[in-house]
Amino acid sequence: MGVPAGRSVRVRVPATSANLGPGFDTLGLALNVHDHITVTATETPGVRVRVRGVGEGSVPQDERNLVAATLLHVLRSAGCAVPGLEIVAENGIPHGRGMGSSGAAIVAGILAAKGLMEGVEEISDDDVLRIANELEGHPDNVAPAIFGGLTIAWVDDEGPHHQKLAVHRGVSLLLAVPVRELSTEVARSLQPESVPHRDAVFNLARAALLVAALSQSPELLLPATEDRLHQTYRAEAMPETSSLVTALRSEGHAAVVSGAGPSVLVLCSDPEQRIRAAELVEAADGDWQAMLLAVDIAGATVEVLPASERR
Questions:
Q1: What sign for the dihedral angle of Cα 229, 234, 235, 236?
Q2: C-alpha dist (Å) from residue 231 to 30, 147, 259, 265
Q3: Which of 64, 134, 145, 243 fits a 20 to 30 Å CA distance from 249?
């Protein structure tokens, strides 16, 4: 059983912002910034990766590349003969900024394998989430990358699950992206083993309120994005991020750390509020890029290319 030589697939995966303040390791939102990956099976053995855009010249260009490594893992786990692979990655998702770049690469690799094995071995959406969770370690980033929109993700004895929700049309997004990167591992190392009971209850209430605010009541976004579980503990690793979140919230903007940081996500209830928030970002200390974004509702896609479009 093997992938036909010459088969080519194209994958598109969105960036994500996880946690959204109180929804630690549970809530995630897909953003309209994307990585585009084209993979072609070849008769020539080996893996060759070309990277354009983000990561060009700095990420591995062989089987160590995260997209390639994930793709190979899925093929081998399915018992599929591994062909030669030509991978072209056109990356738009910044690395190390709390925008789910690693999760997106993992999802891209799984979906590329799904497309290459079409008609040989079937991979369901549940399988994609399960494999992505196994490789990423938690589902809050990979679920919105796969399914799009706002997702609630959880894990039980049967594996990871998700629920996708529509975001209220009045919600608009602003992402403040700094120049410097931050390792997710560094941020997570600052998280305590336990938190006070009152803080846990506080976050439970805010996370429930945030689902309501994002889906039906955007006017509640500011109180709904309060957090006591993770952002304060991680502040020492990213003081400029913490300062920007504080400055934005003091002016009435629902600002949170995006994922593990250091980017800042602002959930705005109207376009004028987003413009005011962008002005504050541009005037803030540090080198920040204000990105006016929308929610990606489609999630990741994969298509098998006709012969005329193969590279």
A1: positive
A2: 20, 26, 10, 13
A3: 145
